[in-house]
């Protein structure tokens, strides 16, 4: 068994190991249908895993609508909860159903669980929480834990859209390795539904200056971007990769600050009213792949001592900083609405 521990169940679980390394556990919970969990042998993209499960489980029905319902911090990593409403059959014998799903993007024991039965939403939450927190990996090779991690939830109004997970590690050569993953779910009918996964891996030196960075983006099952940046001997940077199937290459001059480097500059908070803004040149691939992005942070008057406006290219974002200089709340304009991204949990210290 790749894991062990105790979970909530109303009977003896059934365990099946597949040739592809996936372990399937069926947990009776006292209802007509069990909760079924898939444990993966390698880390997963939460959006891609959710989409794959919806497609495989609902291939014989009509999927009406999918939405994210909640993000939880379980065992120090993000768990995304979703619901999919579907119909089966034709009038006058149409059956209505709801699939509840949880994807736990845990780097140690990644898993996805589902329950194909109307109702029992709170039961599903309790059972999946016990699975995420009650089971531990038995693998001899365990990933190095981060010394700091941060889980943030994204919402528009009361509608949950997804999460961002950030982890910091010490680099063997000195400096800091930052890993960040984001999953967004655009709710709606199958024609409107979209799952988006992005990942960043950033290495900065002891001064917070960028050494290298990798960026990848997946929309549904298609990889739409895979780009890397590396520092050259002359202090500049080279960018290469693919976006939308086309090759991208660029040369960037001058030093670039990493996320940890920016946070260290903001540790004392945004500049006081009337002071000069804190400025930095950074590589923000979601904004511009081939040129540095100018980032400016200035105080937001009357909104608290750690409230600021962060200007990134054409965007002006209202942010709140924690005592370490990292953003713990952000408001992002999305069309005519505002997406709020805010910290759900934090472990360790950066």
Describe the protein's topology.
Elements: E1 3-5, E2 14-17, E3 23-27, E4 35-39, H1 46-57, E5 62-74, E6 77-88, E7 95-104, E8 111-116, H2 121-134, E9 135-137, E10 148-156, E11 159-170, E12 176-186, E13 194-204, E14 210-219, E15 222-231, E16 237-243, E17 246-252, H3 259-265, E18 278-282, E19 293-299, E20 307-312, E21 315-321, E22 327-334, E23 337-348
Antiparallel strand pairs: 1-9, 2-3, 3-4, 4-8, 5-6, 6-7, 7-8, 10-11, 10-23, 11-12, 12-13, 13-14, 14-15, 15-16, 16-17, 18-19, 19-20, 20-21, 21-22, 22-23
The largest pleated sheet is described as: 14 strands, antiparallel
| Largest sheet, spatial ordering of strands | 17-16-15-14-13-12-11-10-23-22-21-20-19-18
What class do helices, strands and sheet pairing give?
Answer: mainly beta
Report the mean per-residue pLDDT as an integer: 93
Give helix and strand order, one letter per element, not per position: EEEEHEEEEHEEEEEEEEEHEEEEEE
The count of domains is 2
**Span between termini:** 35 Å
Q: Give the overall shape.
A: globular
Uncertain stretches of 5 or more adjacent residues: none
Number of E strands: 23
Question: What is the helix tally?
Answer: 3
Proportion of residues in helical segments? under 10%
Strand content: over 45%
**Spatial extent as radius of gyration:** 22 Å
What can you see in these coordinates?
The chain is mainly beta and 350 residues long. It folds into two domains: 135 residues, Protein Transport Mog1p, Chain A (3-Layer(aba) Sandwich), CATH 3.40.1000; 201 residues, no CATH class. It is built from three helices and 23 strands. The chain has a 14-stranded antiparallel beta sheet with strand order 17-16-15-14-13-12-11-10-23-22-21-20-19-18, sandwiched between helices. A hairpin with a 7-residue loop joins strand 12 and strand 13. The longest helix is centred in the middle third of the chain and has 14 residues. The protein is globular and about 65 Å long. The two termini are 35 Å apart. 34% of the residues are buried.
